[in-house]
Amino acid sequence: MKDNFRIYSDGEEFSAEDARRLERAMDGFVKSDVPLAVEFIFTDEEEIRRLNRELRSTDRVTDVLSFPALDGIKGKALKRRDYPCDIDDEGNLFVGSIAVCKKRAAEQAEEYGHSYRRELNYLLVHGIMHCLGYDHMTEEEKSEMREKEECILGKMGITRED
Fold first, then answer.
1. How far apart (Å, rounded) are the C-alpha atoms in residues 22 and 156?
2. pLDDT, tens digit (0-9, with 9 covering 90-100), for 23-75
3. Which residues lie below 8 Å from residue 82, measured CB to CB, with a gap of 6+?
4. Radius of gyration (C-alpha) of the chain in whole angstroms
5. DSSP structural state of residue 86
6. Which among 93, 91, 102 is positioned nearest to 64, based on CA atoms?
7. What is the C-alpha to C-alpha distance for residues 129 and 78, in angstroms, rounded to an integer?
8. What is the pLDDT of residues 125-148, one digit of tens each?
């Protein structure tokens, strides 16, 4: 089985070329007999704060929020037959949505001393990892998640120096 990711983005922050690069980097990350789809939404501080408050009971601005569509999928092969109600109109298995605060991403890029492009891609990959069941609640989980994030970013040609 081989997976193909489909990236849907609502803004100019993430170009079609960027989406294809990320889709290629994700190729083979999850075994699947159906293309996997994820949605990116780019927003301002007010909207991400509202989402964080209403959906997570945390009244503050954050950099990225992930909204996984499926539970318990970490490390599992995803088969069309197991998710018949989660297949979209284009035949993709929808795994979740990711909202990124553009201003917070820009601030963090400056704070960490790397490019906005690097920070934005890191946040998107981080969000995808959450949609695929990865987390960072323990040091072990955090280490595993960071290793996978850096691997994907590396496949995209994005380093910490960018």
1. 6
2. 999 988 999 999 999 999 999 999 999 999 999 999 999 999 999 999 999 99
3. none
4. 15
5. G
6. 102
7. 15
8. 999 999 999 999 999 999 999 999
- CA distance readout (Å), 72 to 13, 77, 135: 31, 11, 12
Read off the pTM. Answer: 0.91
Hey, what are 122's tokens?
Answer: 């890191």
Give residue for tokens 């201003």. Answer: 103
DSSP 80: G
Query: What whole-number distance in Å separates Cα of residue 111 and Cα of residue 55?
Result: 27
Q: Which of 74, 76, 71, 87 is nearest to 141 (CA)?
A: 74
Element of type H or E holding 41: strand 36-43
- One-letter amino acid of 19: A
Tokens of 55: 């959906």
Cβ-based burial of 158 (10 A; exposed 0-12, middle 13-18, buried ≥19) = buried
